[in-house]
Specification:
alpha+beta; six-stranded antiparallel sheet; two-stranded antiparallel sheet; disordered N terminus
């Protein structure tokens, strides 16, 4: 097995060993979850988030794309993974994603967190999903495919803007819920 296939397998094994964190949401009038500014727990495993993310490996990048078949951009990748794994409807754009959840510095990152980068001479112009071990999943750019990268490479390290946690590793006894 080559290194290209060993990395996703290692990430999957890592993800399956993680504790079971969850996300914060309340049902609003139209039945869609609303993301809270501070994450709370509802018992959803982070492993499913990682597994869903890894299922997008080698999907072509397409600006504005929202489909595994025709391609995705970075924010669509995040949106689709969180929707499929957790049933959580996140905002569509990178800028909007950068405004939700708990703000994090690099040493605070845990698997399932969002990581943001300045790739277009403006902060928060690119997003990925942190996998742990200084690695993240993202849809890079035109001509590229969804792949795993290291935060330690010079390119990504220089452009790192911070992270956001929309999934929490702590358990709260009573998560607020509004009946549908």
């Amino acid at each position: 097995m080559g290194i290209r296939h060993a990395l996703p397998a290692a990430a999957l094994l890592f993800a399956l060993a993680l504790p079971a964190p969850s996300f914060a949401s309340e049902r609003i009038a139209d039945g869609h979850p609303e993301v809270s500014a501070v994450p709370v727990s509802a018992g959803v495993p982070i492993g499913e988030l990682i597994v869903q993310g890894l299922s997008f490996l080698d999907t072509p990048y397409r600006f504005g794309g929202t489909s595994r078949d025709t391609g995705v951009d970075c924010s669509a990748l995040v949106q689709l993974v969180f929707q499929r794994a957790l049933g959580l409807d996140l905002p569509r754009t990178t800028r909007e994603l950068a405004e939700i959840g708990e703000r994090l510095k690099r040493p605070q990152l845990k698997a399932g967190d969002l990581v943001f980068f300045n790739t277009r001479r403006r902060a928060y112009s690119h997003v990925g999903i942190y996998l742990g071990g200084d690695r993240f999943l993202h849809a890079p750019s035109s001509g590229g495919k969804v792949r795993i990268e290291s935060l330690n490479t010079r390119y990504w390290n220089k452009r790192f803007n911070g992270g956001r946690r929309v999934v929490s590793n702590t358990t709260v006894t009573a998560a607020p819920q509004i009946a549908q």
